[in-house]
Design brief:
Blueprint: E1 7-11, E2 14-15, E3 21-25, E4 28-32, E5 40-48, E6 52-62, H1 88-105, E7 129-136, E8 142-147, E9 154-156, H2 167-181, E10 195-203, E11 208-215, H3 223-233, E12 237-244, E13 256-262, E14 266-270, E15 273-277, H4 287-301, E16 308-312, H5 318-323, E17 329-334, H6 337-349, E18 355-359, H7 362-371, E19 378-381, H8 390-398, E20 403-408, H9 411-423, E21 426-434, E22 444-451, H10 452-472
Parallel strand pairs: 4-6, 11-12, 16-17, 16-19, 17-18, 19-20
Antiparallel strand pairs: 1-5, 2-3, 3-4, 5-6, 7-8, 7-10, 8-9, 10-11, 12-13, 14-15, 20-22, 21-22
This protein binds S-adenosyl-L-homocysteine (SAH).
S-adenosyl-L-homocysteine (SAH) binds near residues 283, 334, 336 and 339.
Length: about 475
């Protein structure tokens, strides 16, 4: 066991999945936050047990050649970014390795199936969504901020390099109102105060802004004044919504939304289609990378005329709707009612008549569709971080689709699920990591699985098409 407060000279050789540097001292792994692979340094042991230890940089002897100077003053205090201190190439190498190691070790797939990560050309101001906790700084001013890593301490801050530039003015006007009216921030320790979060959304292609205030109240003091200040100051503001969250919880939004201005939603354009986005609905945060992600998903889905597409965890319908023109029928499944309402509206405004949307838990919807004898040719799975429920995988495999396209934001649950799919005869043919979240540890992956047993049928169909065309000649 390494001794607390002891100082060792060492070199950082790897990163954890959370992006902390790792070195080995006397055969024991030591985690050193804010270090970079290749750093030669002195590490002070802070906490230690038999298997591993935590340390901090005591003295840098020779910084890694992968290091860059962080371009944000609060990088080390704020929990938002993990990689502002290493080059983008090193960050991509970390993400590639993370996906490779997880999918090969846990998922059991052949590493040659994993393609090179789809890089992001724009790495700042890419986030179209911000949920900023509200606090008072030490001078008594009401501020928005970010939570420090793994804590509920709010670091006050008025701007962030990851988020859309159009949020800055919205934050400023909101804080001017909050400070002038002295509307108290919420304090989770004693469940007092009013203002919990400022929740902002921006539609990049249409330049539409949404402001949603999350409050421990049904009404705000001088609400009309706030609406006037925001609408006068923000020409691209489309809607203002008040969300009431009176629960003692870390869940950000409550169940009740009241529109204070506009229609309650914004619209964006993605992959050539228009989408309604409500505050309740999920919408991918990085517009440019989402278009790349969906293009890869569409290539993997490789839909042909007459095929049925099932889009599980469809949100507001984006993935399925962008592919619907190629399919005979699209069925989307999603658990949030408002997202399904948006998805239906989205099919309508884009003139897509072959889509059906079902508001249900994915597992029970799949059973229902199987009972209805629906036989999807292709199934898209885009679950939240916890991945797919085991019974959903059973039902899906039982529907015998030709292709499954799995879009995942967590390599670990993806690996667990593709292993289960492999046990059911669905093998991974390709996996492409996509950098949806530059400067953070998060990485998205798109996987194509197909059924070994059904592949022969697939081939026959292909050769039939060839026969037909040759007979026409
Ligand atoms: N495919 C969409 C949304 C992906 S996010 C897009 O690209 O925008 C995952 C979605 O799964 C969210 O909309 C979430 O509300 C939904 N969801 C979470 N748990 C679910 C469940 N058990 N059944 C169905 N949908 C679920």
């Amino acid at each position: 066991m390494l001794k607390k407060n002891e100082i060792y000279q060492t070199e950082i050789i790897d990163y954890t999945t959370e992006g902390s540097g790792v070195c080995k001292i006397d055969g024991i792994a030591v985690f050193v936050p804010n270090s970079a692979v290749g750093d030669r340094l002195k590490v002070r042991i802070l906490k230690s047990n038999k298997k591993y230890a935590y340390g901090k940089i005591e003295e840098m002897i020779e910084p890694s050649e992968n290091r860059i100077t962080p371009d944000c003053d609060i990088f080390h205090q704020c929990g938002g970014c993990t990689f502002r201190h290493i080059s983008y190439e090193s960050e991509l190498a970390f993400k590639q390795k993370r996906v490779y190691d997880t999918l090969t070790r846990i998922g059991g797939i052949d590493g040659s199936m994993i393609h090179e990560i789809e890089r992001a050309d724009y790495r700042d101001q890419y986030r179209n969504k911000a949920q900023l906790p509200i606090t008072r700084d030490k001078d008594g001013h009401i501020r928005v901020g970010f939570f420090a890593p793994a804590s509920h301490r709010i670091i006050p801050l008025d701007d962030c390099m990851l988020q859309s530039a159009s949020f800055r003015a919205a934050i400023q006007i909101f804080l001017d109102w909050a400070n002038s009216e002295n509307v108290p921030p919420y304090d989770e320790r004693n469940h007092s105060g009013i203002l919990r979060h400022l929740y902002l959304r921006y539609a990049e292609n249409t330049d539409e802004l949404m402001v949603c205030i999350v409050a421990n109240a049904k009404e705000l003091r001088k609400e009309k004044k706030l609406v006037k200040m925001l609408t006068q100051g923000l020409p691209n503001l489309k809607t203002i919504v008040l969300n009431t969250n009176a629960e003692k919880t870390n869940v950000i939004t409550g169940d009740t939304y009241r529109v204070l201005y506009g229609s309650g939603y914004i619209t964006d354009e993605l992959c050539g289609l228009k989408f309604y986005i409500s505050p309740q609905s999920f919408y991918q945060v990085n517009h440019r990378q989402t278009e790349k992600l969906y293009t890869i998903a569409a290539e993997f889905a490789a839909l042909k005329q007459g095929e049925i597409l099932l889009d599980m965890y469809c949100g507001i319908g984006t993935i399925g709707l962008t592919m619907a023109a190629k399919a005979e029928k699209l069925i989307g499944v999603e658990i949030i009612p408002r997202a399904i309402e948006d998805a239906k509206k989205n099919a309508e405004i884009n003139g897509i008549g072959n889509a059906e949307f079902i508001c249900k838990d994915a597992s029970s919807a799949a059973i229902m569709l199987k009972d209805r004898q629906i036989k999807p040719d292709c199934i898209i799975l885009d679950p939240p971080r916890k991945g797919c429920a085991k019974d959903l995988i059973d039902t899906i495999a039982g529907m015998s689709p030709l292709r499954i396209v799995y879009v995942s934001c967590d390599p670990a649950t993806l690996a667990r699920d593709i292993k289960i799919f492999a046990e059911k005869g669905y093998y991974t043919e390709k996996a492409i990591p996509v950098d949806m979240f530059p400067r953070t540890v998060h990485v998205e992956t798109v996987v194509l699985m197909s059924a070994a047993s059904r592949r022969s049928r697939f081939r026959v169909e292909t050769s039939l098409t060839c026969d037909k065309s040759s007979s026409r000649i």
